[in-house]
Amino acid sequence: MSGTPTAAATAAAELTAQRAGVTLRELHGLDEMREACRVLDRIWRPDPGNPLITPELLRVFAHSGSYVVGVHRGGRMVGFCLGFLASVGLHSHIAGVDDSVRGRNVGFAVKQHQRAWALARDITTVTWTFDPLISRNAYFNLTKLGAEPSEYLADFYGAMQDEVNAGTETDRLLVRWELTGEHAAGSAAGIPRTVTADVADPRTVVALDAKPDGRPAVGRRDGDTVLVRIPAEAEELRRTDPPLAREWRHALREVLGGLMAEGHTVTGFTRDGWYVIDRRQESQA
To answer: How far is residue 249 from each of residues 46, 141, 157, 242, measured CA to CA in Å?
Structure first.
């Protein structure tokens, strides 16, 4: 097995977890499932009458061979991830770490562990969804991991009652992570997938930007490279100015969702908040 993609992925996952100061392991017992649900409750703070998931269902997922993994630090579970088997391979449904380990690259360790776990089972594609309005998630998923958006899903989950999502429409980007591809391998080696956004280039157009007052401004979509801006702190905007947050939601749905519905491919995301669609790459594909 030495020198195989699975062995390399396993080594990268172990190193990433060591650097993050955590251990990751599959969960099996019902008590572990209850603790996992408590971790999710701490992160998402759902309505007590409407839990995100139940321990019994987690046990079924684990027993049937899905990815049910706890993140531990100092003998305490501080994170959790559930991925279930799907037609494409593995769909990573929910993942989170609590505040005590934020900023330690624990989320990155989870995805590297998930990649190694999947490859060991001959699964080469993982999908998941994320809120396209959250800049840090877009950067993590598209740049740090090298996943590729495949579909814009408008209000995918409908109204949700947890404190993280309450009061906002649940638009999501569905991404595909090709585990044996160059971007996933580069991610495991610590090499992000980078793109640039040169607004001064005459072949580049800005399809969505921010006005001086912070409101979204819809622009052109006909350049070789198309840029789509999102606000830096959309989560804070939801708390301080919900109408403006909704305005951004609808503008992003119209522009990014519209471009993807037309068949255009998001080629990356910049650290300063631009989705990039490079039509020159599309023509070469």
So the answer is: 22, 19, 15, 10
State if pTM tops 0.90. yes
d(CA 36, CA 145) in angstroms, rounded, equals 24
163-197 confidence digits (pLDDT tens): 455 568 899 999 999 999 999 999 999 999 999 88
**For strand 172-178 and strand 125-130, is the pairing parallel, antiparallel, or unpaired?**
antiparallel
The three-state secondary structure class of 204 is strand
- Can you tell me which residue has the tokens 């399809």? 207
Torsion of CA 273, 275, 279, 281, to 10 degrees: 90
**Whole-number pLDDT of residue 165:** 55
**DSSP strand pairing (204-210 vs 67-73):** unpaired
In what helix (H) or strand (E) does residue 226 lie, and over which residues does it extend? strand 225-229
**For the chain, what's the residue count?**
285
According to DSSP, residue 67 is labeled E
Phi, psi of 215 (to 5 degrees): -80, 155
